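S., here's the first fold you wanted:
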Amino acid sequence: MPMDFEFPTKVRDLVATIAPLDVFDIVVVAMIFYKMYQMIQDTRAITLVKGLMVIALLTVICGWLNLHVMSWLLQKSSDWLLIALPILFQPELRRALEHIGQGQFLHQSNSLLDKKEADSVVDEIVKTAKKLSQTKTGALMVLEREMKLNDISVTGIHIDGIISSEFLLNVFIVNTPLHDGAAIIRGNRLISAACVLPLTENHELSTELGTRHRAAIGLSEQCDALIVVVSEETGTISVAENGRMVRHLDEQTLAAKIRPAFTRREDKLFGNVLSKWRGKK
């Protein structure tokens, strides 16, 4: 009978040792880990994380089974991984440091638009992409999100004009100084054009993808921007995000894909809790 109360007593004693600062500490750490997960989800880094988890699990299993040779090999591999991690996660580490430096690690950018303005900008960009696709005019449109792209915008020509389809079409007129390179869009304004983007180092991409597509993927590997690409050869509309590219988009799918760049993203975990709390009030 005393055994029935042993476990609850230990739990009660453990809870009694938790101070308010301990709760605050746990909440802060949980928020940091959740933010880190948001940054790497749907990227190639999440595959690397899964691989590290498999290695850690194998190390525990081999130690439990007393497989000394396997345990030694896995431990040595873990030592080398500690050195390789900064190289493997270079884009994600850079993104996290830039978020911290800009004070945006735990909150959203304040340059987002309200629903009416966002719908208007999305419509203008979709209309532009459709017309460029019909005429097979190559184009790169970078939609800035939380991470500022000032280092990219300074490589082009400063403009700072209100977004409209007619304005964007004039920017991408063939054989003009602004045609080559990318246009940087921040909110409802075109801030710069003819910008130079970094090319991806991913050698596994299809040979069908030209320089524009590789430049779009290269920038998306280094920041959280959405990059709209119109192919000069086929007129295909594509969007690059987090090192991946979605191709052959129509008007509806393109609008749905780029709208999050202009509207505030709701946090599925904390947002639902806050909405329920406000509803009760």
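And the second, which I think is the more interesting of the pair:
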Amino acid sequence: MDSMTLQTSSSASTPRAATPTRISPGQRLLQAGMRLLGSIHPSSAATLMKRLWFSAPRSTPRATEQAVLDSGTRLSFDVHGRKVAAWVWDNQGPTILLLHGWGGYAGQLHAFVEPLHAAGFRVVAFDAPAHGASAASRHGGRRVTFFEFADALETVAAAETSVAGIIAHSGGCTALSLALRAGWNAPENIVFVAPFAQPSAAIGGFARAIGANQRVVAAFSADVERWLGHPWSYLDIATLEDIHKWRRLLVIHDEEDREVPLSQARAVAASWPSAQLIETQGLGHRRLLREPAVIERVLAFFAKSALATPRLGGDYLPRDSRATLDAAYEGFVSRTPITCAHR
């Protein structure tokens, strides 16, 4: 595994002032209700916790994000009898898939679209079930699991003739690992941005936020395992079977990510023989997706593969895209200040 620190355009050297966590009146009411219910009927409180855990927030794309989505061709896929919205930016090269995380939407990865398209790739992004412009999942309402994410990913990918790589953010990385466990023939080049690699590690913080006690948490954890038919460790990306880890993997995570700790990215990279880990500073959990230095590094990752690895049936990319990719790779090496340590 290679580990790097990527210096970005943000003022990473300026420390951020710690801001106290504000609790809304609605959250205080939820905490009080959960504490009362948990003390008198833990199983009912566990059922409520499960409903809250698997309810995804709906987010609306910003104007700049929507503009990029509108520049693509709108597609629609059927996943478990429900509509999944997708967008494609056509080109003659192979496909790069873009997969958002929990509570996200395709537009969050908009900054990758133009650079990848200019490099000759066909780009496809979609909103997961119960997210963005897609319909509810098979569970109804806003309830959804990463298994529905994974099924949607397989459905969208199956419509493509040649998939060169995938960029997944946060919980999208978890979904990708579930698709691999289920037998999906994923592309050879994978990029994880701020991977939510160990969902079970978030249970404690979630329980504190809603006021659930230990008896409720224990009942919740056991109930989820019965419902999903798998232990929580099945969702841990680091425990993914080695048979899948021959693929090239680039992991990018920020030291100041307040939603997913950097330790999770390090655990994934350490478990993956060919992984490259890049640690950024000052970008948090989502600004990574818009940072030019990060986008340039991802493009260089795909460029290195395209330039070094021929594919069956001819060139991996159309000839007119190779100069663009070559320039991206050389430009990254010459312009991006990094320090690298081999582990």
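Why I say that: The first helix runs from residue 25 to 40. Residues 10-20, 307-343 have pLDDT under 50 and may be disordered.

Talk tomorrow,
H.
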